[in-house]
Structure to design on (587 residues):
């Protein structure tokens, strides 16, 4: 029998505290285990551990110079000082040099109050800049519908570069030039709109300053809300409700559905609807499409199409695999189409006067909403997309005390949704929601066990074989475009034996989308943000009265009165779309 060797422990002192950690631990990790905070800027756990910024320097007794704690491994008997006068003075000098050529327009910056550079300046009491230097002036890139790139606020931490290369495996941005002229840019210094960017927004989530942020739609929405001749409808994605509260100081993963609805009504929206209802329609259409493909063995595996960053990725990188994509629109686009067709007809409202706003955890939705394919009768299904962060800014600017609001319910009839619709917000959720309905469609029998735990969890790629009646369905769930690449290569090379594939562009799914509240690298190192938000999504599902999409009574009525059969002619006309091969570079 093989005996597992015990993990070797290293003993050291940090600021006079005895610490015992496994061999291979860095000084930074060891310090945080005993609640000693060492400041960082370039550090991003498991993504950018390079020691470039030097903010995390410490003193080690018996050694010359400083030790960079994010990359320096602990050693037996090591004595570390993180807050000696020499360390503090050196950090202040480093920060002074960073600030010397930084554009310090903090009051008007989108990251004011949530900027790691600003927080460090406050922590180190930087009331004066000793080395105020020459500042380069860079043109702001705001050509894309999703991302604004302002290199004037960049500190060259390279966290965005590491995220794009290592996690998403895109490489749309990189460090160019040398010395004082060094900058983060694209191929040929072209706009993100014209290179291989998928607009996933993970670079924004990991940027410590305001160098990258979403393209705002706030002013446009305010203008429509003030127009008495415009009927403004808002819909909110599943993941928004478990993250919005964080922008108001509430614990990570707090479900604020009722307060969110109340706030939206206070802002003046004519109707507040739930995108979860749209997700239920997606399951009906996608499930019906899968059953048909499965029975006919046609273009399998079928791949989900809910994530617009993922759709843009496959259009650019694997156009030969486009036939595998479901033709279903994403939930908020389906919902927008239904609002401007079914709802407009039912309420006798001119569709031209309806303005649909989607509140999404995703900045790629801003790109998706202006795709020419997302139109019905010449009108865009969705007219504007706000991120979770943008909604929070609107609530704050309207002087609404969010935490004091009473809970209110979504408006009828498009506010009733199921637990299956809710879990769209987390990786594996689309697959699980689809399996709940597909199982009952294929077998004609009610499920004994509704939860499909095989497709849950944080593993980057999850494979499972699901027994449905006499059929065995092989499924795979991948989140993050780096993992999507693995699955695409398997399909391209004919090595994939799956029938059903779910892919989400963002690691963790929509709960960690590029439009969600931004967490500092320190928070990400000490708190499992992804798990807390995911747990909240599954709790919503568990507490739902109805947990299977096909049992949603609103959905059933709309099919009966308006759409006809799932997958039928009218449903296909309104709720489905098509895709096109895209060039990676338009330069």
């Amino acid at each position: 029998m093989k005996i597992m060797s015990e993990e070797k422990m290293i003993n050291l002192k940090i600021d006079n505290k005895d610490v015992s950690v496994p061999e291979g631990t860095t000084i930074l990790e060891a310090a945080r285990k005993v609640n000693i905070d060492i400041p960082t800027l370039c550090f991003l756990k498991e993504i950018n551990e390079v020691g470039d910024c030097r903010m995390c320097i410490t003193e080690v007794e018996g050694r010359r110079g400083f030790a960079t704690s994010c990359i320096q491994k602990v050693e037996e008997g090591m004595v570390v000082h993180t807050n000696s006068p020499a360390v503090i003075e050196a950090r202040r000098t480093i920060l002074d040099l960073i600030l010397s050529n930084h554009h310090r327009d903090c009051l008007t910056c989108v990251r004011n109050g949530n900027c790691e550079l600003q927080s460090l300046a406050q922590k180190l009491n930087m009331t004066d800049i000793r080395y105020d230097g020459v500042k380069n002036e860079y043109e702001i890139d705001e050509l894309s519908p999703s991302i604004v790139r302002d290199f004037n606020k960049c500190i060259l931490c390279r966290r965005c570069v590491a995220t794009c290369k290592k996690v998403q495996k895109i490489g749309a941005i990189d460090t160019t030039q040398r010395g004082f002229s060094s900058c983060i840019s694209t191929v040929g210094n072209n706009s993100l709109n014209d290179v291989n960017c998928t607009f996933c927004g993970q670079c924004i989530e990991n940027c410590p300053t305001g160098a990258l942020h979403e393209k705002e739609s706030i002013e446009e929405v305010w203008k429509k809300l003030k127009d008495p001749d415009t009927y403004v409808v808002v819909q909110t994605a599943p993941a928004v409700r478990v993250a919005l509260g964080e922008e108001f100081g509430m614990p990570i993963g707090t479900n604020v559905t009722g307060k969110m609805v109340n706030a939206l009504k206070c802002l003046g929206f004519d109707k507040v609807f739930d995108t979860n209802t749209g997700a239920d329609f997606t399951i009906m259409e996608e499930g019906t499409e899968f059953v048909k493909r499965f029975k006919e063995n046609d273009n399998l595996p079928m791949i989900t199409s809910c994530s617009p960053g993922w759709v843009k990725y496959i259009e650019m990188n694997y156009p030969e695999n486009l036939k595998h994509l479901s033709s279903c629109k994403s939930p908020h686009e389906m919902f927008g189409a239904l609002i401007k067709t079914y709802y407009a007809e039912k309420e006798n409202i001119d569709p031209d006067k309806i303005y649909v706003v989607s509140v999404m955890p995703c900045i790629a939705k801003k790109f998706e909403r202006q795709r020419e394919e997302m139109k019905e009768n010449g009108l865009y299904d969705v007219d504007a997309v706000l991120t979770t962060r943008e909604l929070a800014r609107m609530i704050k600017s309207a002087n609404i005390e969010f935490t004091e609001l009473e809970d209110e319910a979504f408006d009828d009839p498009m506010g009733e949704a199921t637990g299956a619709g809710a879990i769209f917000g987390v990786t594996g959720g689309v697959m699980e929601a689809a399996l709940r309905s597909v199982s009952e469609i294929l077998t004609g029998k009610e499920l004994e066990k509704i939860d499909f735990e095989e497709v849950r969890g944080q593993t980057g790629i999850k494979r499972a074989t699901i027994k449905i009646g006499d059929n065995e369905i092989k499924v795979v769930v991948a989140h993050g475009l780096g993992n999507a690449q693995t699955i695409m290569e398997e399909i391209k090379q004919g090595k994939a034996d799956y029938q059903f594939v779910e892919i989400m562009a963002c690691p963790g799914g929509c709960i960690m989308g590029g439009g969600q509240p931004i967490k500092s690298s320190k928070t990400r190192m000490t708190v499992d943000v992804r798990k807390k938000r995911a747990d909240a999504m599954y709790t919503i599902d568990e507490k739902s009265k109805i947990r299977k999409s096909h049992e949603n009574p609103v959905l059933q009525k709309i099919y009966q009165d308006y759409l006809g059969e799932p997958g039928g002619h009218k449903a296909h006309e309104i709720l489905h779309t098509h895709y096109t091969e895209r060039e990676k570079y338009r330069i």
Q: What stands out?
A: DSSP finds 19 helices and 19 strands in the chain. The longest strand covers residues 471-479. The longest helix spans residues 275-296. The radius of gyration is 25 Å.
